[in-house]
Automatic annotation (TrEMBL):
GO terms for molecular function: hydroxymethylglutaryl-CoA reductase (NADPH) activity. The keyword GTP-binding does not apply. It catalyses: (R)-mevalonate + 2 NADP(+) + CoA = (3S)-3-hydroxy-3-methylglutaryl-CoA + 2 NADPH + 2 H(+). Its EC number is 1.1.1.34. It is a multi-pass membrane protein. This is 3-hydroxy-3-methylglutaryl coenzyme A reductase. Pathway: Metabolic intermediate biosynthesis; (R)-mevalonate biosynthesis; (R)-mevalonate from acetyl-CoA: step 3/3. Belongs to the HMG-CoA reductase family.
C-alpha cells in the first residue's frame, strides 16, 4: 500500500495508529508516517498545526529499543537539557550526577552543594532497606473467611508456602515480608521482595500472581482477586505506608560542612541554617500537613536524575519522601537526609535507552552487577540521596542568605540580545 494511502486512511481513523510498526516492520518509517497522520487528522488540521513540520525531532533515534518497552504511538522524542552536578564524593567515590531539567539554577545550585560537601570530606550514605512492594486486594464471601486467610498468611507455615511459590518465578525476586489488613470481607496483602538491579514492579507482580494461586490452593478456594494492585502498595501516590514501612530502597545520607565552608561557599552561617531548617522543613511542613515532605525540594533532584537515568519519573511521588535534618556540631554543620522509598533500577524500563544507559555508565552502575545482583541499583539510590543532600544544602543556604530570588532571576531569565 502506498504511503499516501496509509496516511489518508490513518487520518480518517481507518488504520489504528498503534498498528503501524507491526504492519510496516520498520519503526522509523512508522514514526514518520504517524507524524503525517497526526498532522492531517482533523484534531490538528483544524488548528492549523503540523507535527511533521514542527520542532519535535524524530530522526536519529533508536526506536527498536522503544518498541514494546517504553512508549506507544511514537511521533518523536522530547529533548531535555542535561547537565552534571559534581563530582560529589559518596562513600569515598567521586561521581558526577546527571540531571535532566528545564529549571534554571537547579543544576548550578546542586553543584554548589556538592562543592561544599566535598570540602567537608564527602557524603556517607547507608542503605537501610531494599524491597519493592505489591499489594493485591482479594475478596471472600465473609469476614470470617477473610480473617482466617489473614491468620494463615501471617503464620510461619503460611509464609513458607507462599514464599516457595513466589520465589519460583524469578532468579532475583526473593520474598521478604507480607503485611495483611482486613476491611470487611476484603483482604489487602502487601508483598515485599528484593528484585536485584531491576526497579522490580513487573518482577514482583509476576511473583504475586503465583503467590495468590498458592493461597487459593491452601484452603482458600473461595478467594476472588479484585485487583492485582489494591493501593496498599502504594505506587505513584502519597501514602503513609511508604513513609513508615519503606518501598524500594531506604537510604540515609549525611555530611559535615566546616563552618568556614558554610560562610565562604554557602554565604551564610551554621546557626541560621539550623534555625531555617527547623522553621521551614520541620515546623512549616507540619503546619502544611505534609506527608513525607519534610524537605526543601527533594523532588527537584530526584526527578532530574530519574529523567537522566531512565527511571520512571512518576515514581518521584514516593521516591521524593525525605526528611532533612541539620545540627550544629562543635561549630560545624551536620546535615542529613532520610529517604525511605527511593524506587530505582539499573536494568529494565527506560534504562534500555542509549542516552539513559550512557548516563548510568558515567556513574559506573550501568546494567546488573554480575557478582552481586542488586548492588548497582542500591548504589544509584545512595547517589540519588546524596544529590538530594547537596540540593537541600544549597537551597536552604540561599534562603538563609536571602539570595534565592537573585540566583533564579540570573539563571531563569535569559537576557534579550
Amino acid at each position: 500500500m502506498p504511503e499516501s494511502q496509509i496516511v489518508e486512511l490513518g487520518a480518517r481513523s481507518k488504520i489504528p495508529l498503534y498498528s503501524l510498526e507491526r504492519a510496516l516492520q520498520d519503526p522509523l518509517r512508522a514514526v514518520k508516517l504517524r507524524r503525517q497522520i497526526v498532522s492531517q487528522h482533523q484534531a490538528t488540521s483544524d488548528i492549523n498545526f503540523s507535527v511533521d513540520s514542527s520542532a519535535l525531532p524524530y530522526e536519529g533515534y533508536d526506536y527498536k529499543s522503544v518498541l514494546g518497552a517504553c512508549c506507544e504511538n511514537v511521533i518523536g522524542y522530547m529533548p531535555i537539557p542535561l547537565g552534571v552536578a559534581g563530582p560529589i564524593k559518596v562513600n569515598g567515590k567521586s561521581v558526577f550526577l546527571p540531571m535532566a531539567t528545564t529549571e534554571g539554577a537547579l543544576v548550578a545550585s546542586t553543584n554548589r552543594g556538592c562543592i561544599a560537601i566535598n570540602a567537608g570530606g564527602g557524603v556517607t550514605a547507608l542503605l537501610l532497606g531494599d524491597g519493592m512492594t505489591r499489594a493485591p486486594v482479594v475478596r471472600f464471601p465473609s469476614l470470617e473467611e477473610a480473617g482466617a486467610a489473614k491468620i494463615w498468611i501471617d503464620s510461619d507455615a503460611g509464609f513458607e508456602e507462599i514464599e516457595d511459590a513466589f520465589n519460583a518465578t524469578s532468579r532475583f525476586a526473593r520474598l521478604q515480608k507480607i503485611q495483611t489488613t482486613v476491611v470487611g470481607s476484603d483482604l489487602y496483602i502487601r508483598f515485599k521482595a528484593s528484585t536485584g538491579d531491576a526497579m522490580g514492579m513487573n518482577m514482583i507482580s509476576k511473583g504475586v500472581e503465583q503467590a495468590l494461586e498458592a493461597i487459593r490452593k491452601c484452603g482458600f478456594g473461595s478467594m476472588e482477586v479484585i485487583s492485582l494492585s489494591g493501593n496498599f502498595c502504594a505506587d505513584k501516590k502519597p501514602a503513609a505506608v511508604n513513609w513508615i514501612e519503606g518501598r524500594g530502597k531506604t537510604v540515609s545520607a549525611q555530611a559535615t560542612i566546616p563552618r568556614r565552608v558554610v560562610q565562604e561557599t554557602l554565604k551564610t552561617d551554621v546557626d541560621s541554617l539550623v534555625e531555617l531548617n527547623i522553621s521551614k522543613n520541620l515546623i512549616g511542613s507540619a503546619v502544611a500537613g505534609s506527608l513525607g515532605g519534610f524537605n526543601a525540594h527533594a523532588a527537584n533532584i530526584v526527578t532530574a536524575i530519574y529523567l537522566a537515568t531512565g527511571q520512571d519519573p512518576a515514581q518521584n511521588v514516593q521516591s521524593s519522601n525525605a526528611i532533612t535534618v541539620m545540627k550544629n556540631v562543635n561549630g560545624d554543620l551536620q546535615i542529613s537526609v532520610h529517604m525511605p522509598s527511593i524506587e530505582v533500577g539499573t536494568v529494565g524500563g527506560g534504562t534500555v535507552l542509549g542516552p539513559q544507559k550512557a548516563m548510568l555508565g558515567m556513574m559506573g552502575i550501568q546494567g546488573s552487577d554480575p557478582e552481586h545482583p542488586g548492588r548497582n541499583a542500591q548504589e544509584l539510590a545512595q547517589l540519588v540521596a546524596s544529590g538530594v543532600l547537596a540540593g537541600e544544602l544549597s537551597l536552604c543556604s540561599a534562603l538563609a542568605a536571602g539570595s534565592l530570588v537573585k540566583s533564579h532571576l540570573a539563571h531563569n531569565r535569559k537576557k534579550e540580545s
